[in-house]
Amino acid sequence: MRATVIHAARDIRVEDRDDPTIIEPGDVVVRVVAACVCGSDLWPYRGVRPVEPHAIGHEFVGTVTEVGDAVTTIAPGDFVIAPFTTNDGTCQACRHGITSSCEHGSVFGGKQDPYGHPMGGAQAEIVRVPDAEATLVVVPGPVDDALVPSLLTLSDVFSTGHHAAVSAGVGPGKTVVVVGDGAVGLCAVLAAARLGADRIIAMSRHEDRQRIAREFGATDIVATRGDEGIDEVRALLGGELADCALEAVGTKESMDQALRVVRPGGAVGYVGVPAGGPELPMSFLFGKNITVAGGVAPVRAYLPELLPDVLSRAVDPGRVFDLELPLEEAAEAYAAMDERRAVKVLLRP
Fold it and tell me: What are the structural domain ranges in the chain?
């Protein structure tokens, strides 16, 4: 099969690799229908994190081709959504709905699964999924190909945007500021609108992303940052700050911005993968009674709630994909996102 491998910073190659096969009884093998590049994939691509050559990618949807002997609820031919983390469904974290922190979980494109076997990346033609019954969600068929982009967002970015909104307590009547206009930030706008927020301010400097933010439900756009951005938020909200801020970048600057646009007693939901040293100023939080919650999105726990709205077309998070390329052009996909020529790139094997 063909699979995407990162060898070093800005060195993405599509290579031949052995086809994955069933190893453990709970495994499933999936032929990928669509995968994509995540904003977090850009950290190693840019050299922000050390890189050792490995298969990369953690978001995909596809069709089951083979199941292990212990698998009874998934069958060959099923169309499935794969959360970017696997989980066993039985540990304390899973029982409390935090499937992304499963004691026996793993990440596609990581070093190994809970049983010590190598984990393949999702930017590939075929992927083996451990603990498949607890991890995968079967989509009722037949699946309209037009829905594939939106179904793919459920594997990570839309579910992650939803996690930011839930963590910040977004709901009817709330005012919300979204910091970050990548795919996750845009999906956070959509999630806030879906949850009934009264006012949604998207902080974005890019016209193409501003346009998507408005389509997703943003009522206002703020293109400035720092003190000027805070002043603009106050002006839009009649001199007040927001009830909630959703942080979707993962840098020191983005977290600082999110903390300073919320009112005393407000809340920040953070889902940006930490890079660049984000820290929490405890004295500031203490003095303002600001709640900070979030982390790695427990995608599997959210799918039963979010999937029906995608299938009914009540929401269309697939709009974040503004470029589609064949898998063989994965290197161009990374370059396009790195250079901000694309918000998010969908890859078709």
Answer: 2-156+298-348, 160-294
Contact 57, 152 (CB under 8 A): no
Does the domain at 160-294 match CATH 2.30.42.10? Answer given as no
Beta pairing class for 137-139 and 79-82: antiparallel
pLDDT in tens, 139-149: 998 999 999 99
First CA to last CA distance, the chain: 10
pLDDT at residue 279 in the model: 80
Residues 6+ apart with CB under 8 A from 120: 3, 17, 20, 55, 108, 109, 126, 127, 128
Domain 2-156+298-348 bears CATH identifier 3.30.70.1450: no
Quick check: helix, strand or coil at residue 316?
coil
Distance CA 194, CA 211 (A): 18
> Is the previous residue joined to 142 through a cis bond, with omega within 30 degrees of 0?
yes
247 three-state secondary structure: strand
**Bridging pattern class, strands 126-129 and 199-203:** unpaired
**Cα–chain center distance at 327:** 20
pLDDT score recorded for residue 338:
96
Written as six digits, the tokens of 162 are 């939803």
Instruction: Please give the distance of CA 169 from its chain centroid, rounded to a whole number.
Output: 19
Tell me the average pLDDT across 214-223. 98
Q: Mean pLDDT over residues 80-84, rounded?
A: 98
For the entire predicted model, the pTM comes to 0.96
So what's the pLDDT on residue 272?
92
